[in-house]
Design goal:
Helices cover 31% and strands 21% of the residues. It has 834 residues and is an alpha/beta fold. It binds pyridoxal-5'-phosphate.
Length: 834
């Protein structure tokens, strides 16, 4: 992936030198080649395009990591002192204060962003929740950047601001402070246009003398903003803001309409309605929306996010609909799947008390039936009074949990501070290695694990060893990519065009419920499945969208209707059966016309009979849409045929509309059709393969992003002697000394046996390794003779940056659709957002 796509305006070393007023040692030129800021060598970065900041903390000094970074290809570093050896190819920018330099560079970047509206969020709690949900409500309909999970500190904020690019319409940045004087610095970097204040916490923060001071300090983020959204009705907050920010527009929301700008009212269960807003009133139906939370904190924070989103978009009504699909922040990608159904939250990077509270509540908030492990280390980065506060919080938060629900794993030489843990709730280790040994002998299962340790304890080793990624064959689905691909199609179609997302065959093999949930959150209008069972699965998972069932056999129609699914009607038998159902509640149907696919649908010759039957339909059966399917939209050779299909479709749709006396939604375009043949007599497209980043032409594919990657791992490496044969039937014989690797994936997982003996291969360490011998049911052997460092457990790429779905499809002699849908059930699906 080329980074230039993600950062259209890289900086040149000469510019950096000037912005930082730095003394430069080494080559400096005007080529714009610096895309990334790098502060932590544990994070993988394209080293040659990154600017490394040697930050210092009380117990670490990134200058120590310079040699390692240079070995990894680093070319540019900001330093306070030069290393003893100065490699000639590396450029050093010498400054007196590295952190200040990082902040200056970010502030400069911010000053160049003229057309992005920057939203600054602060408050004692709820910042991350509001930020994440505001993002989910806006994106992908709007181009939005946001800070990563808890990047709200003096280091995190500059890194977040750096990621804003000129094309972003909005950037949501969270700011957290722990003592006076810090917010001014963050304000200069963020320069928000709009401010959100979430909540004033009651806990006394160590760094502040009183609540008033805390409020004053936090509100310094809003020095220059015009609009401030208040997420709380705490009287002291309201009073403070109306006294001190009276020249700004303060927006409030409430559950009554009294003097607030947004008023929401509870209707029933999880349904609310927007009673009042500063924008054009909506119809009553449009005002209603569902909120998928019940706890007060989440409900309130989601309303703050909603008010902000409405304000930013001038009351875009699509946003209300997206409320139903917000997910708890706990489910976010920051949790990774571990071995044995464990979930791991690695929050080692923050040590502030607020982050601890947040992490603990996150750990305990959801899925109360699961066990919890809290892995802590000695906190040598904190001063002793801060440590006391830290353990105070720990004690307070844990004291409300039943002690059989969690175990604390403590790593450190100094004894843990006097916390009254019952002795069976704590395990003590002196080193991280000891703890790893313990995990080896007693691996946790079905447990949520929070890692919170000081840097020198290297808790990332724990995360790695628990990580499922290393030791399993998995299909990784990049939801963000799917969202971007959807946006691309939307950008190519008229604004009003609806999208029906095809989630048949477990969403092309990538998992129906997860995909449906995500697609709901990004505002698709309809879902379609092939069979009733697939639709029922989605309903059971509370997917709220209308769902069309394509193969609604007359026998399953009662089931379809009972589950609030909408049948595709392609035969007279189905129509008869529908009329015979005893229900009289509203049934929406989708009429399928066969315009040349010869698969399902009414023949055009039968249009007149169909129309006469439609005219006799009982009132509760309504034609929601008329559709047809293109047979060769992806093949220019058949252009005339495709156009003929479309014209015939409209002729019949027209007749139907006339006969029934109302307009229906017309749709005929699949992925390929929606780009090459869209015509505005249709109101909807049906997207499938394109969402995964696959299109019929390279020009279009360039605008899409592959959304699926497939990985496995090496089970064993073997040295082969000349004459050794490999696998069943001895179909491969080594003619020289070789090395083979056994990969944990076989034809039962979707690696076709036809790929045996060099017809296909995988990538290991970025090198192509052809298959040798025959593909087995569960394993495949590849030639790794060229790889010196290969060992068991090394990752294997089947589909990824080196080998696309199309490549694999070609090797198998099939199409990407079949590759995706034949990935076996036991291959674990992992979902993530970037
Ligand atoms: C699968 C399917 C689509 C989607 O096709 P893609 O090529 O994946 O976009 C559209 N319509 C119908 C009827 C389908 O069966």
């Amino acid at each position: 992936m080329s980074s230039s796509i993600h950062h259209p305006k890289p900086y040149s070393p000469a510019e950096v030198a000037e912005i930082l007023q730095a003394e430069v040692i080494g080559p400096v030129h005007d080529r714009r080649c610096l895309y990334h800021l790098w502060t932590d060598t544990r994070q993988a970065m394209p080293a040659s395009e990154s600017l490394f900041f040697c930050l210092r903390g009380p117990h670490f000094d990134a200058h120590d990591f310079l040699p390692q970074a240079i070995q990894n290809g680093l070319k540019y570093a900001v330093v306070e002192r030069l290393p003893s050896e100065i490699p000639p190819e590396v450029t050093f920018f010498k400054v007196s204060d590295n952190l200040a330099a990082l902040q200056i560079l970010a502030a400069h970047h911010r000053s160049r962003l003229k057309s992005t509206t920057v939203i600054g969020i602060t408050g004692s709690n709820g910042k991350t929740m509001v930020k994440e949900w505001l993002y989910d409500l806006l994106w992908p309909d709007y181009d939005v950047a946001k800070s990563p999970l808890s990047y709200n500190s003096q280091v995190g904020v500059p890194l977040s601001v750096w990621k804003i690019e000129p094309h972003h319409s909005f950037a949501i940045i969270e700011a957290g402070i722990s003592q006076p004087g810090e917010m001014e610095k963050l304000e200069r970097i963020i320069r928000p246009d709009v401010g959100i204040f979430t909540y004033l916490g009651s806990a006394h923060d160590a760094g502040f003398t009183n609540r008033r001071q805390k409020l004053t300090e936090k509100s310094k983020l809003f020095q220059q903003v015009k609009n401030i959204i208040l997420g709380t009705d705490q009287p002291e907050v309201l009073e403070f803001f109306s006294n001190n920010f009276s020249d700004r527009h303060l927006y409030r929301w409430s559950f009554e309409s009294k003097d607030s700008d947004f008023a929401f009212q509870h209707v029933k269960n999880d349904i609310y309605t927007l009673k009042k807003s500063p924008f054009k009133p909506l119809s009553q139906k449009e005002c209603e929306f569902a909120v998928p939370f019940t706890d007060e904190l989440s409900v309130k924070n989601s309303f703050t996010a909603l008010s902000a989103a409405l304000l930013l978009t001038n009351g875009d009504r699509q946003i209300l609909r997206k409320m139903a699909a917000l997910t708890p922040v706990r489910m976010r990608m920051e949790w990774t799947h571990g071995i044995n159904d464990c979930m791991i939250l690695n929050d080692s990077y923050t040590a502030d008390p607020e982050a601890l509270v947040y992490a603990l509540r996150t750990l305990f908030s959801l899925d109360t039936s699961r066990k919890k492990i809290l892995v802590l280390s000695e906190l040598d980065q904190l001063k002793s009074e801060q440590q006391l506060e830290y353990f105070d919080i720990l004690q307070r938060e844990l004291s409300v949990q039943p002690s059989d629900r969690y175990t604390v794993y403590y790593v450190g030489k100094r004894p843990i501070l006097p916390i009254p843990f019952s002795s069976n709730a704590i395990k003590i280790f002196t080193t991280t290695e000891e703890l790893l040994q313990d995990f080896k002998h007693h691996p946790p299962t079905h447990t949520d694990i929070l890692l919170k340790g000081a840097r020198r304890f290297g808790f990332e080793k724990i995360a790695q060893s628990l990580s499922a990624h290393v030791h399993e064959t998995r299909l990784e689905i990049n939801l963000s990519a799917i969202g971007r691909n959807l946006s691309y199609f939307r950008s190519r179609l008229p604004n009003s065009t609806k999208v029906m997302a095809m989630v048949k065959a477990a969403s092309y093999g990538s998992g129906s419920v997860e995909l449906a949930r995500f697609l709901t959150s990004v505002g698709v209008d309809y879902l379609a499945v092939a069979y009733a069972d697939e639709g029922i699965e989605l309903r059971n998972a509370h997917i709220p969208l209308p769902i069309m069932v394509m193969n609604a056999h007359p026998h399953v129609l009662p089931l379809v209707i009972e589950h609030d699914l909408q049948p595709e009607i392609y035969s007279f038998e189905q129509l008869e059966q529908l009329k015979n159902l005893s229900t009289t509640s509203l049934i929406k149907i989708h009429l399928k016309i066969d315009t040349g696919m010869k698969r399902l649908g009414f023949e055009p010759d039968h249009a007149d009979i169909l129309i006469s039957k439609l005219q006799k339909l009982p009132n509760h059966i309504v034609v929601e849409s008329v559709l047809s399917h293109l047979a060769a939209a992806d093949e220019p050779l058949h252009k005339d045929f495709t156009i003929k299909q479309i014209e015939q479709f409209h002729t019949i749709a027209e007749k139907i509309e006339k006969a029934i006396g109302y307009k229906v939604i017309r749709h005929i375009h699949n992925t390929a059709g929606s780009l090459d043949y869209f015509d505005d007599r249709c109101q909807m497209v049906r997207l499938g393969i394109g969402l995964y980043g696959i299109a019929h032409s390279p020009e279009i594919e360039r605008n899409l992003q592959p959304a699926v990657e497939w990985y496995s791992f090496v089970s064993q490496v073997k040295e082969l002697k000349s004459g050794d044969s490999v696998g069943y039937g001895r179909s491969f014989v080594a003619d020289k000394p070789m090395k083979s690797a056994t990969v944990a994936v076989g034809y039962a997982d979707g690696i076709r046996r036809s790929l045996s003996n060099g017809k296909g291969g995988f990538y290991i360490h970025g090198v192509y390794c052809p298959i040798i011998g025959r593909v087995c049911m569960d394993m495949t052997m590849v030639d790794v003779s060229g790889l010196d460092n290969i060992k068991a457990d090394d990752p294997v790429e089947i589909i990824g940056p080196h080998q696309s779905i199309q490549d694999l499809a070609r090797q198998m002699g099939t199409i990407p659709y079949e590759v995706l849908t034949s990935v076996g059930h036991r291959v674990r699906r992992i979902y993530y957002k970037e």
